[in-house]
């Protein structure tokens, strides 16, 4: 038996809770599982699901420090979402006002991918789904 079974969730700290809540629920269309305001921490915690699977915890904290991103910094590099069509998903994101980088091809897999950012500049990737069968 393996030590680890799967990824349970990804935690993201945002600087503007309402802006990030809108981005993750309206732009990326993740579904709200639970929303809690933790008075003692003056912090929101928003649990989000993708295809009915719990995946993201969105936190707000008073005055979090900015995340270094460019040049590449140590730590989490990006969060990647698998999509059926990178071109179609890119178009939809752009129609929703999101700036998306040009599509690239993964040199090892031949799959298409590209990047965009959440409201705090966290790099997000869309990656072409593996074709089975």
Strand content: 35-45%
Question: What count of structural domains?
Answer: 2
Whole-number mean pLDDT: 90
Identify the strand order in the major beta sheet: 1-4-3-2
How many helices? The count is 2
Note the overall shape: globular
Tally of strands: 8
CATH A-level architecture of the largest domain? Roll
Determine and state the CATH class of the largest domain.
Alpha Beta
- How would a textbook summarize the main sheet? 4 strands, mixed
Give helix and strand order, one letter per element, not per position.
EHEEEEHEEE
Fill in the CATH topology of the largest domain.
Answer: 2,3-Dihydroxybiphenyl 1,2-Dioxygenase, domain 1
Nearest-angstrom radius of gyration?
16 Å
Low-confidence stretches: none
What is the first-to-last residue Cα distance? 28 Å
């Amino acid at each position: 038996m393996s030590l680890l079974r799967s990824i349970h969730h990804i935690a993201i700290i945002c600087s503007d809770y309402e802006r990030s809540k809108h981005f993750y629920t309206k732009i990326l269309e993740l579904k709200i599982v639970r929303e809690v305001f933790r008075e003692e921490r003056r912090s929101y915690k928003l649990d989000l699901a993708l295809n009915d699977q719990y995946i993201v915890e969105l936190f707000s904290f008073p005055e979090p420090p900015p995340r270094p991103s460019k040049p590449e910094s140590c730590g989490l590099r990006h969060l990647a979402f698998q999509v059926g069509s990178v071109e179609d998903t890119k178009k939809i994101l752009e129609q929703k006002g999101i700036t998306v980088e040009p599509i690239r091809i993964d040199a090892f897999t031949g799959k298409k991918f590209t990047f965009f950012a959440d409201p705090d500049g966290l790099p997000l990737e869309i990656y072409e789904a593996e074709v089975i069968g």
